[in-house]
């Protein structure tokens, strides 16, 4: 069963071929209306369940549109409205859904929920974000970097802010795609050691640098994300803002990176908190290409899962 659960648990050669296939599919569609079918219709006759236990704009729309372009059909399910939200086990839900659909994408809270779904499903399962990782996002980010600047291998990526789920998948990607990674943020919000260790074990140069201005020197890509994630308690907001204010990505910070450095943010953003509008809408920013590439990267991921 080819589940797409995380970047570090997927074969590096397969990850590479997914990026290349996403880029090829994107260029094959240039100029076509968004709803126009792809020529090859690899998902014809396939039904895909998209389960959301948290809000989503990009993941929801990009998966739905991607499946339709490839000739399949989708059903978007909210966790709360399913029996899953009323006491039915994940395992039973996985077994039942596997009798109706060919592929399951789930966005959930606990990593254990995703693991249990994958363990009991008899169809592939895709991680659409958990509290700990967001692999589809980082596949789109790698694709976006390479589309603009060529191979990401050997480049320096700097993450500023909270060492969260998106940061974790970036560390996995650093190991699998061979780029270096510097985290800059307060110690209390460091990424988990096991994510850092994975990247280092694969040969990536991972640094933790408390001074953001030192961190960005020589950066090819500067990335940030919201200071308060969907799984963080609302009560943490004020403390986090105080801790993270010094790590805002603004024009002064970007000026310390390489002149051709890119800026990314997975969105949704809190403009003028983690990054200023001047940076988000400025010459380094590729945030909307990044959002678009969710569509193309995930189409490649779904094809890989289904052996298409
Ligand atoms: N970046 C991302 O996953 O966005 P959504 O929460 O809108 O899906
Ligand atoms: N870190 C954010 C990413 C949203 C796409 C969250 O988990 O809320």
UniProtKB/TrEMBL annotation:
Gene3D superfamilies the record matches: Aspartate/ornithine carbamoyltransferase
Enzyme Commission number: 2.1.3.3
Keywords, comma-separated and alphabetical: Cytoplasm, Transferase
Domain of life: Bacteria
Binding residue positions for carbamoyl phosphate: 56-59, 83, 107, 134-137, 266-267, 294
GO CC entries: cytoplasm
Domain Aspartate/ornithine carbamoyltransferase carbamoyl-P binding residue range list: 2-147
BP-aspect Gene Ontology terms: citrulline biosynthetic process; L-arginine biosynthetic process via ornithine
Subcellular location as annotated: Cytoplasm
Gene Ontology MF terms in the entry: amino acid binding; ornithine carbamoyltransferase activity
Pfam families: OTCace (PF00185), OTCace_N (PF02729)
Binding site for L-ornithine: 165, 225, 229-230
Matches recorded under PROSITE patterns: CARBAMOYLTRANSFERASE
Reaction catalyzed: carbamoyl phosphate + L-ornithine = L-citrulline + phosphate + H(+)
Cited function: Reversibly catalyzes the transfer of the carbamoyl group from carbamoyl phosphate (CP) to the N(epsilon) atom of ornithine (ORN) to produce L-citrulline.
UniProt family annotation: Belongs to the aspartate/ornithine carbamoyltransferase superfamily. OTCase family.
Protein name from the UniProt record: Ornithine carbamoyltransferase
Protein's gene: argF
